Amino acid sequence: MSDSPPGVVDLLGVLAYAELTAFLRLAEDAARHAPTLTDRAALGDLAATEYSHFRLLHDRIASLGVDPEEAMAPFVGPLDDWHTQTAPADWLEALVKAYVGTGIALDFYREAATYVDAGTRELVEEVLADEGRSQFAVDRVGAAIQEDPRLAGRLALWARRLVGEALSQGQHVVAARPELAKLLVEAAGEDITRMFGRLTEAHGKRMAALGLTPGP
Fold first, then answer.
1. How far apart are CA 215 and CA 1, in angstroms?
2. In 3D, which of 7, 5, 4 has the Cα closest to residue 15?
3. Which of the chain's ends, N or C, has fewer CB atoms near its CB within 10 Å?
4. CB-count exposure of residue 121 (10 Å: 0-12, 13-18, 19+)
5. In the chain, what percentage of residues exceed pLDDT 90?
6. Does residue 16 have a pLDDT over 60?
7. How far is 45 from 16, CA to CA, in rounded Å?
8. Under 8 Å between Cβ of 14 and 112
9. Which residue, among 207, 200, 201, 202, has the nearest Cα to 158 in the 3D structure?
10. Cα separation of 93 and 75, whole Å?
């Protein structure tokens, strides 16, 4: 087994499963919702990038002497539940989820990586690189809202639901995995509530970039 702190294995495990599910969901959204072949190919490229990130994390976990499947297993339920509860109904909802919903989740992992060893932090930053997801979503959602401003209200409500579900599942994860929670709070000497406040602030900035109102 790994000599790394248990929280590091938890962080790599949750991030690996998040990247694997991101690949699967983006590929599914591309096939099901993309309105043009160009959009399908662009979202497919993003999905391929997520899979390459998953492989990097998978290999790093294995190099620590941990079975990657075992490392990911505790997080299958919460992440699968989040995806089930936030299945997009159309192309624009899929884009908002890829940008806003996934974005706040990645902020969560980035917070944890602040307090790990340099090698793990470097890997996490590499796999959390935006890779064009933000601009892709902002351009297409922004153009759709400009064409039909009535879309803004529906998409804002959808984004609020996404962030609410993401924060709820994140709280379940840290409650169930105390070593992962320790990474988030010990070094900074602060509690989870303040960390989630920062996540919500970053969410508001993403909403503004889309031209949507963050809401209460």
1. 45
2. 7
3. C
4. middle
5. 41
6. yes
7. 18
8. no
9. 207
10. 24
CA angle 156, 154, 164 (to 5 degrees): 45
Q: Which residues contact 178 (CB under 8 A, 6 or more apart)?
A: none
Which two structure tokens, joined as six digits, stand for 126? 């590499």
> Which pLDDT band, with edges at 50, 70 and 90, does 182 fall under?
confident
The angle at the Cα of 197, spanning 125 to 11, to the nearest 5 degrees, equals: 35
- Whether 51 and 41 have beta carbons less than 8 Å apart is answered as no
* Residues making up the chain, counted from first to last: 216
Which amino acid belongs to residue 79? L
pTM: 0.86
Taking CA atoms, 180 is separated from 42, 48, 194, in Å, by 34, 28, 16
Closest to 53 measured CA to CA, from 140, 147, 125 = 125
41, with CB counted inside 10 A (0-12, 13-18, 19+), is exposed
